[in-house]
C-alpha cells in the first residue's frame, strides 16, 4: 500500500495540481492587493469616499454607531455584511477575468506552436521512400556485378 501511495504521489498530475495550488495562492495575494490597494480607492473616489468593505446592517443586537465591521462582529450582534460580500464578488470577477485572459493567451500560444509545427512539416523536404532507396541499392549492386 505504501508503494502504491508513492506511485500515486509521483504521478505528474498530482505534482501539477500542487504547483497549481501554490500558484493560485500567490495569484490570490496579487488579486487581493489589486482590489484593496487599487480598485477600492478608485471606487471610493467615484462614490465620494465610501469604502464598501465596512458596510453592514445590524439585524439584531447593539452595535455602537459608526463601529467598524470588525467591532460589530466582536459585539456579538447579528449583522448583514453586504460590503464584504460585494468585495468578495468583485474579487471573484477579477480572478475570473484574469484566468480567462491567461487561458486565452496560453491557447493562442498553443495554436501558434501547432501552426508552426504544421508549417515545418509541410515545408520539410520529402526524401525517397524506403522502396526507392532499396531499388537504387539493387541497381548499383547489379551494375558492379556486371561491369561493361
Automatic annotation (TrEMBL):
Which keywords annotate this record?
A: Cell inner membrane, Cell membrane, Ion channel, Ion transport, Membrane, Transmembrane, Transmembrane helix, Transport
- List membrane-spanning regions: 12-35, 79-103
What InterPro entries does the database record attribute to this sequence?
Answer: Mechanosensitive_channel_CS (IPR019823), MS_channel (IPR001185), MSC/AndL (IPR037673), MscL_channel (IPR036019)
Coiled-coil regions, chain positions: none
Localization of this protein: Cell inner membrane; Cell membrane
For this protein, the record's PANTHER family field holds: LARGE-CONDUCTANCE MECHANOSENSITIVE CHANNEL (PTHR30266:SF2), MECHANOSENSITIVE CHANNEL MSCL (PTHR30266)
Q: Which family does it belong to?
A: Belongs to the MscL family.
> Which protein, by its recorded name, is this?
Large-conductance mechanosensitive channel
